[in-house]
Design brief:
The complex is a heterodimer. Chain A is of the alpha/beta class. Chain A contains eight helices and ten strands. Helix content of chain A is 35%, strand content 26%. In chain A, 41% of the residues are buried. The chains are: A alpha/beta, B mainly alpha.
């Protein structure tokens, strides 16, 4: 099976704390990996290192067998959807403009229409991004991430602050991308139910890796489930 | 009688260079405004004042020294800002005041203000030479080509730096490129509106255009149109009434801004509600 990501002994030291402590795991092609853990567990830190935004780490991160310190080519194969995309509210960019920003080759422009249709935002293409609801914006950022036919999609708690109906639609889109287009998905979340429904692999991260394996094995382990649902409950309350 | 002014060759040069500068300032300014760097043009202009003073004292053509001093100091201040985590507005204040301070000291050393200094402070579009016009057109052409070639990278890194980085855009290089282009644009535009009013051309047409709720390209075109209109109308009106072109140009731009606010508050600009 093709190894998409191999992380070996990853350690990230911040001045006062170890954000990631000796984490190793592998993601295979077609995996739908849910990474769960409370706030401050190091999920975003892990992603920043995988995306080349933080290079001050110890250990090795490989994409498709190549060390990302040696080549940035892996970035072309990744679609990234950030937690809450930050931009000026009155930024003069339409949905079309934003999706086009992700496009590596101008020649693929007709691909944009196709993706907008697939994500049910075709009618919004000439609207300014700042005018849309959180759920619509999130779908625009998925569209932008998908426009180069990525092999991997990385999503950092993508449904924060979005209404339930949009979340359901968002999840069904993810499921389809994984099952029909065989896109490997790495997704951090604190919604255990959603992880149970969608992911086929689970990683529990809280600075170190407490579990990594098939999601069935995780959900059979009552202790782990309890611990992580409590952790996410606390976080949930913290959010509100 | 009023049409007589179109027969003067100095007026041809003024209008041609004015249009080029209007386009240049609105396009480069759009990126600055969207990066919350609106006053950066002003800071570069003030630092060019130091460069102009240096040129006047040393006998080198002041615009050349202005190009050198403004671009170098803009790049240095950007480097310091990134390296030492100084906020954007504070770094602008440092650049702005140091340029004026250097200029004042040099002028003091060389025997006080001259007429030349005033033409740089307030612009002298009616005095542009054929060579100036060619230089302005050339620089405008080069910068527009660079912007068209790097359009996606410029827009993406302005929209969201982190995401642009993940998509492989060389964000740092693009940032320096924008600062470099801003330096060239400011010094090139000094002849039109002078050091003191330059940021008006960078900012006013763009904030006006952004209010129309369109996408990026259309916003840029709207901004360019307002900018060109302000400059051409400003040159003509100021000549007819014998008032200062720089002030007139900026007042017309502010007039369009005011009208846009009026239209917008009357609810006539909302496209989708």
């Amino acid at each position: 099976m093709l190894k998409v990501v191999e992380i070996e002994h990853l350690t990230i030291q911040y001045p006062d704390v170890k954000a990631i402590d000796d984490v190793s795991f592998t993601v295979n092609q077609g995996d739908f990996l849910g990474i769960i853990g409370p706030n401050g567990a190091g999920k975003s830190t892990l992603f920043a290192a995988m995306l080349g935004l933080n290079t001050k780490y110890k250990g090795t991160i490989k994409f498709f067998g190549t060390d990302i310190r040696k080549s940035k080519n892996h970035l072309k194969e990744i679609g990234y959807v950030p937690q809450k995309p930050i931009f000026e509210k009155n930024f003069p960019a339409t949905v079309n403009d934003v999706v086009k920003m992700g496009l590596q080759k101008e020649s693929d422009e007709n691909k944009i229409d196709e993706i907008l249709q697939q994500l049910w935002i075709h009618e919004l293409s000439e609207r300014r991004i700042g005018e849309l609801s959180g759920g619509q914006q999130q779908r625009v950022f998925i569209a932008k991430a998908l426009v180069n036919n990525p092999k991997v999609l990385i999503l950092d708690e993508p449904v924060t602050g979005i209404d339930q109906q949009s979340i359901d639609l968002f999840y069904s889109i993810l499921k389809e991308l994984n099952s029909k287009q065989n896109i490997t998905i790495i997704w951090s979340s604190h919604d255990l139910d959603a992880v149970n429904k969608l992911a086929n692999h689970v990683a529990c991260l809280n600075r170190t890796l407490f579990f990594h394996g098939e999601s069935d094995d995780f959900f059979k382990n009552d202790d782990l489930v309890k611990q992580y649902s409590e952790a996410s409950m606390q976080e949930h309350m913290h959010h509100h | 009688m009023a049409f007589e002014i179109f027969t003067f060759s100095f007026m041809h040069r003024a209008i041609i260079s004015g249009i080029a500068i209007a386009i240049l300032c609105s396009v480069v300014g759009l990126f600055l405004v969207l990066r919350r760097y609106s006053l950066f043009g002003d800071a570069i202009a003030h630092s060019s004042f130091g460069g102009i003073a240096l040129g006047l004292m040393s006998g080198i053509y002041p615009l050349w020294t202005a190009y050198g001093v403004s671009i170098v100091s803009a790049l240095i201040i950007t480097r310091i800002k990134d390296r030492f985590n100084i906020s954007g507005d504070a770094s602008i204040a440092v650049l702005l005041s140091s340029g004026i301070a250097v200029g004042l000291v040099i002028i003091g050393l060389s025997g006080g203000f001259t007429l030349d200094i005033f033409s740089f402070l307030f612009g002298s579009i009616l005095l542009v030479s054929v060579n100036d016009t060619i230089l302005i057109l050339l620089l405008t052409g080069i910068i527009l080509i660079v912007i068209l070639l790097l359009y996606r990278q410029l827009l993406y890194s302005t929209f969201n730096e982190e995401q642009a980085k993940v998509s492989g855009v060389p964000v740092e290089k693009i940032n320096y490129l924008i600062v470099f282009m801003a330096g060239i644009t400011v010094v090139t535009s000094i002849q039109l509106v002078g050091v003191l009013l330059i940021s008006a051309l960078f900012v006013i047409p763009n904030v006006t255009a952004i209010m129309y709720g369109r996408g990026f390209k259309q916003t840029a075109i709207i901004s360019m149109s307002f900018s060109i209109f302000s400059v051409v109308a400003g040159i003509l009106v100021s000549y007819l009434f014998d008032i200062t072109p720089a002030g007139t140009i900026v007042l017309i731009a502010i007039g369009i801004f005011g009208c846009t606010i009026g239209i917008k508050s009357a609810g006539l600009l909302s496209r989708h509600h």
